[in-house]
Design a protein that fits this description.
Elements lengths: L12 H7 L28 E6 L6 H4 L28 E4 L16 E8 L8 H7 L21 H9 L8 E4 L17 E3 L2 E2 L6 H9 L1 H22 L4 H28 L17 H18 L4 E5 L21 H5 L2 H27 L13 E6 L15 E4 L10 E10 L1 H10 L20
Parallel strand pairs: 1-7, 1-8, 3-10, 4-7
Antiparallel strand pairs: 2-10, 3-9, 5-6, 8-9
Length: 458
Amino acid sequence: MRNKSDAPGALSRRKFLAGIGGAALSLPQLESVAASPAATSSGAPATRLAFFYMPNGMTRRGFFPGESDRSLPNFAGQNNVWRFEGQQTPVGQHEMTFTPTLKALHPFRKQVSLITGLDRTFQHGTDSHAQAASCFLSEAAPFGVEGSAYPIARTLDHVASDAIGQASPFPTLELSCNDSKDNIESIYFDNMSWYGSGHVAPSMRNPRKVYDRLFGTRNNLRSRNITDLVLGNAKSFQKKLGTADRDKFNEYFESVRSIEKRLDRVDSMRADMKPVSIARPGEGLLPRKEYIYLMGDLMIAALQTGLTNVSTLMIGAERWGTTLKYEGILDQPRSHHGMTHNPKKHVDDLLKLDAFHVEAYARMIEKMSHIQEGDGSTLLDNTIFTLGAGLGDGTTHQYNDLPIVVAGGGRGALQLGKHIHCPKGTPLANLWLTQLDILGVERDRFADSTGQLSSVRA
């Protein structure tokens, strides 16, 4: 099929890359070269949405400005969600204060905003951790799903993808850094992305499998062969069905067709896809630090190339008791969740772990800020990239005053370089509603939102 950029006088990315012998690992956007796949029909870079989720809350005295001398709280049991009523930053916009946990973000102080004072409502009937990640992005209001202990419906990433992700091969990309095999918890502790109530969008955890799914030609060829065979058989079989079965069959047929369409998009993009400097991961377990870095790099590569415009990355699972090695960070294997239940003993290690997670987020911000797009902007400029946790503190299991940082700005739409403290009782869903509006999704309400956050708009 002829590439639309192969008109007389045009220089396609395929021809350009062939001419340089594939020597460039990360080719910048050039005006004489056809637009990147990660672009809108108008030629402008696509706006992306990404999330960096931290489990088990934060140690408040290290993260929140003005709380460095706050005494460590006592453990507040599960399902007894404590409410933080201590010293509060005045409502409004303030200069950013880079606490020890946020220190890694200082070099990007003009590209991030700290947003505090946002609350969620805990729906009694489950463990507090169970709703922390699973309901973090849910469009269901508390007690909004009849007959369910979980207020889970379609999540923000999928709602946004309906508007900005359907032209990409992967409408959403769900990643997780939990590679533990002892699945002692339910899916609610280990997933933040949902197609709808009761229908999880499972995350990928193996870096090599993620790489092969995104960039592997052999896997796509195998999928293409299977899909073509299924579609061929389906068309033949369809003629034999009675009227009553055709509607059910058509639903099945369209689900297979959606796979074919995704493969078509991959095939059409692959020859002109912008090269990325990321090698195929090797076999075996990685040290925890390298594992998190690599999964972050894979997410960036998918956003950069236009394979997806919407992605989530969970750094770990909620309440998972597995002891993990944090090489170069902690001196011995630890259970993150276990430490939060005894902060007076483990406060130093908790602070180190929180700071590392923020540093991993800052590392992604730095990489995105150096990836140039076709109009001279950067991948970071065109991405709303949110760091957050579903608990305001892992010891008290509080659902109010959540830790939120937003980077990038979505093509200049968000206020950056500020600490924005919201009025008491402001729902987290107000931020999600605002992000949807920036992405062009018009909604009157999202979950328990009461309106948009005008304070975060540029």
